[in-house]
Please model this.
Amino acid sequence: GQQVMQIPQYQHVQEGEDFTTYCNSSTTLSNIQWYKQRPGGHPVFLIQLVKSGEVKKQKRLTFQFGEAKKNSSLHITATQTTDVGTYFCAGTPGTYKYIFGTGTRLKVLA
Amino acid sequence: ETGVTQSPTHLIKTRGQQVTLRCSSQSGHNTVSWYQQALGQGPQFIFQYYREEENGRGNFPPRFSGLQFPNYSSELNVNALELDDSALYLCASSSEPGIHWDEQFFGPGTRLTVL
Model:
């Protein structure tokens, strides 16, 4: 079936270091969304990417959608302790459902 | 503008029982999606409701069913509960569904424990 994998599964960084999580789909995606879930919380929408090769920035966060629309990445520059949480990508293959990735849990050490 | 609310917050049931979870969508949203999130995993899509009709379904058995009401609030019903149904159940509301969905606003979830 359709799968969306994320790597790494876990990442521990020192505050101030950069962080990247990668999202890979087994099928072409119509669009992709990124969410952040704090421990004990619920997913919170970060951004949506629609176009092949699209790059979007939000302050220290940079999001990319691959040319083939099968992969995406989220890069955080100079992490802060407030960045702690699990980051999920969620893609839709064009049907009315979203497939969430396996998530990357980020821990930031002060 | 009110956010997405869910009730109850926590629930404990035994195997074989039935459960109903409730969700009120964000003001102005007519689409509700339900997800199951097991501990340490990503949310798994159960189904979506748009204007009171089921609009898409994930790989969940028929004992998972739902409803959407004219005010766009929604219910998730699970019959014949199994131990593996223990999870956080999330509902998410959004505006008109389409090929490119709008952002989904998630509720706080209902933590279901099946003993």
